[in-house]
Amino acid sequence: MTMKTPACAIFAVVLLATACSSDDAPTAEPAAITLVTYDSFPDAETSLNEALEAFSTETGIAVEILVAGDTGTMLSKAALTVGNPEGDVMWGIDNTFLSRALNEGIFEPAATPVGAKLPAAFTQLSPDGLAVPVDFGDVCINYDLAWFADAGIEPPTSLTDLIEPSYSDLLAVQNPATSSPGLAFLLATIDEFGDDGWQGYWTALRKNGVQVLDGWTESYYGSFTGAGGSDRPLVVSYGSSPPAEVIFAEPARDDAATAVVESTCFRQIEFAGVLAGTEHPDEAARLLDFLVGDTFQAELALNLFVYPSNPAVELPQEFIDFAVVPESSRSVEPERIDANRSDWIDTWTSLVLG
User: Which of 95, 152, 255, 265 could lock 138 by a disulfide, CB 3.0 to 4.6 Å apart?
Assistant: First the structure.
């Protein structure tokens, strides 16, 4: 990004921009806005944070980060404060919660539209433009390549395979009541087996020894053998997990240790929007535009391990080589999710944990 140097330099420090002034001419304080986000957003100094600092330096708009919990918690807080929001822009509402967010009225139209040309398949989920797609990825079954090779067992290729005796006690999943990937995997099974069939599938998974944990971290690092876990070579994770394993491998490696069962993948799309009642609508609109611009979008893959929604942004080589984007990901209509989420989770809890 080309920086313009104003008459009075503006410095960004940990996402806060402060204006300097000359001895003989007082300078107005820069605007300050708050980006509300989920607890997976980086809280340390990363290139993603540096991109936000660059935005502050160029515009004079200070950006503070407010972490509001997981996606469900963040949305619940926003619904309770509609018209008097905790911040100005919200990042991270995904398609499993989108209809609820729109129905609760947590977003207002941006003062100016975003400039990036985003895929119609994403923008049509919020055709009025209140929620802007910022990234996407797929929740999929991951498997440990070495474990299956050593065991002499062919890895599964479908959801149905997972209830076969040969995969007994091998799968770790997350609780859909407490985990976003856990909910996405439940939705994948609903998409596959339908309203009348998914319950029987989960009953079979339970009989086949599926392990349920509260969150992704516990299942991936605690149980999944491909990430150093104990005894489960199958886990619900992401299509972008294989490149992450390559990038962070110690010692370094140039091939993937894990692979993805593409037929199990459920597409997650995350959105951002201007919070209804913001006191800084113009500044919020500029930040929203920046979030889908080239500079910020280019940092998403290696910071959040998601794909940029802006198709003009190039991917890092590790994503090109090792990540999986299925030709046809599973999906469930946001309105259907919103109407049935609570009942589906209650039924799942009774079947699997009861």
Answer: 265
